[in-house]
Amino acid sequence: MQRALPEFDARGVTVIALSVDPPDVSLPWVEQKGFTFPVASDPELRVIRDWGLENTDVGDLSLHAVYLIDEDGTIFYRKVARRRAYPPEFLDAIDYHAEKSG
Q1: CB 2 within 8 A of CB 33
Q2: What's the number of domains the chain is made of?
Q3: Which spans in 3-66 are helix H?
Q4: 42: closest CA among 13, 67, 18, 7?
């Protein structure tokens, strides 16, 4: 996501990540990776469970999930999987939504 951040920025998209780790664990990792987008923490899995994203195969972890939400608050793209998805797919969905909405 970090490498594709300029492409998201050019489209006016804000990237926010959510980690199951508490800040004292996730912050050093975020700094080590050089992430410049916000990374929130959900160690109690409140948001993760509310959104149905708990990975029941591996306790206390989340499935990989991406939600794209437009300026009206409408979710126009959702991907939930056991594997990480990659930015080109999201950028394509953003471009399609912009063309369709524009």
Answers
A1: yes
A2: 1
A3: 5-10, 23-33, 46-50
A4: 18
Expressed as residue numbers, the domain containing 61 is 5-89
At 68 the pLDDT is 94
User: For residue 9, what pLDDT is reported?
Assistant: 94
pLDDT at res. 53: 92
CA atoms of 83 and 93, how far apart (whole Å): 18
Would residue 95 count as lying in a domain?
no
* Spacing of C-alpha 99 from chain mean position: 22
Q: Is residue 99 part of a domain?
A: no
Token code pair at residue 92: 């394509």
Compute the distance between CA of residue 52 and CA of residue 96 in angstroms, rounded to an integer: 26
Distance CA 32, CA 47 (A): 25
Strands (E), the chain: 17-19, 39-41, 64-69, 75-81
